Amino acid sequence: MAYRKRWAAGATLAAVTLAGTVLTGCSDGDGEDSPARSVSEAASAVESAASSATDAWASATAEAGRKLDDIRDGVNVKDDVRLGSTATDGDGRTTVVLTVENTAGSEKSFAVLVEFEGSDGGFQDAVLVQVPDVPSGETAEATARSSHDLSGEVSAEVARAVRY
Questions:
Q1: Which candidate, 5, 46, 116, 145, has a CA 20 to 30 Å from the CA of 130?
Q2: Alpha-carbon distance 118 to 137, whole Å?
Q3: Are the C-beta atoms of residues 129 and 22 closer than 8 Å to each other?
């Protein structure tokens, strides 16, 4: 059990690192909370929840979900995100290419929570990916990369997707 907690905390910390790296410098310029800042705050909340929760993964993903809900003018668009097949990169990390489709009438950004699962359906990792500035009517790709080596046959699914 202690291994699972350390592993889950490490996985969520890596998701936080990825989200923070992608979101650095995002601002709406008026000093108010922007959707990108809300996603960054979600990443911080994930780190905080992971460090203190009994079930780090469940608490962290629940908090990320709440923060995704708080994105102003955000629309749930899980059906507008497609995942490719999982692969293993040169560093041994599991990756999956995701494609978002902007069906809105103007340029939008996306925040996508991708979960990696083992062949038994058990959780292995989760990452939060941002796809910024997708023009209306177009698609864009990004890659979700696991925070650590995942064992066995791994699949990926979109847990949440918000367009803003």
A1: 5
A2: 34
A3: yes
Q: Contacts by 53-60 with C-beta closer than 8 Å and gap 24+?
A: 54/5, 55/8, 56/5, 56/8, 56/9, 56/12, 57/8, 57/11, 57/12, 57/123, 57/126, 60/8, 60/12, 60/126
Instruction: List Cα–Cα distances, 135 to 11, 29, 30, in angstroms.
Output: 32, 21, 23
Helix (H, G, I), strand (E, B), or coil: what is residue 34?
coil
**What is the C-alpha separation between 104 and 14, in angstroms, rounded?**
31
Amino acid 127: pLDDT: 87
| In contact, 128 and 112? CB cutoff 8 Å | yes
pLDDT, residue 52, reads 40
Structural tokens at position 93: 């990390």
Collapsed DSSP state (helix, strand, coil) of residue 15: helix
To the nearest 10°, the Cα dihedral for 96, 98, 75, 136? 170
3-state secondary structure of 51: helix
Residue pair 109/71 in contact by the 8 Å Cβ criterion: no
- Burial (CB < 10 A; 0-12, 13-18, 19+), residue 137, is exposed
Residue ranges for the chain with pLDDT beneath 70: 1-60, 63-64
